[in-house]
Amino acid sequence: MGRPADPARRERTLARATDYVLAHGLTGLSLRPMAAALDTSPRMLLYDFGSKQELVAAVLAEARRRGAARLTGHVGPTTGTVQERLRGIWAWISAEERAPFVRLFFEVHADGLVHPEAYPEQGEAITDWFDTLGATFRDVSSGPDDTVTPTLIMAVVRGLLFDLTTTGDRDRTNRALDRFAELLDR
Fold first, then answer.
1. For 26-35, how does the pLDDT look when each residue is reduced to its tens digit (9 = 90+)?
2. For residues 45 and 48, what is the distance between their CA atoms, to the nearest angstrom?
């Protein structure tokens, strides 16, 4: 009979594996270097997660959970003007310390276009933010079931994040965000 599963070890490993993927990305991910960095073995990673694909899925879910929890804790639903709220979200999400999350987000979505079967929950990374954004921008939405306003806000923020990540031009992307905030508030 094999050793019983250790949920606490799995959670510790998941936290460290998520940190590893945030630092190194998914492209070319190999279990051996990851296991070495986590002071474990590839065999134990497979024991805890079942397969490399299940490990990656767990890491991505954990990264999304961390990001959503941090955003929810950062953004108050009715604090300040529309411009101030949008600038607050932008300042938070585009901060240098969140760059690993942003790079991973774009890496997964780019790879998901070619290999959608590898990321069956990819759509959740988009819609996870609807409740928070809907509550934050309730005053400019068309009602409680409005998904268009959160979609538009996330699309603009995502586009500007891609621009900032690619070009590094913070001044221009900040000004573009300010222009969008003005349009949103009309």
1. 989 999 999 9
2. 5
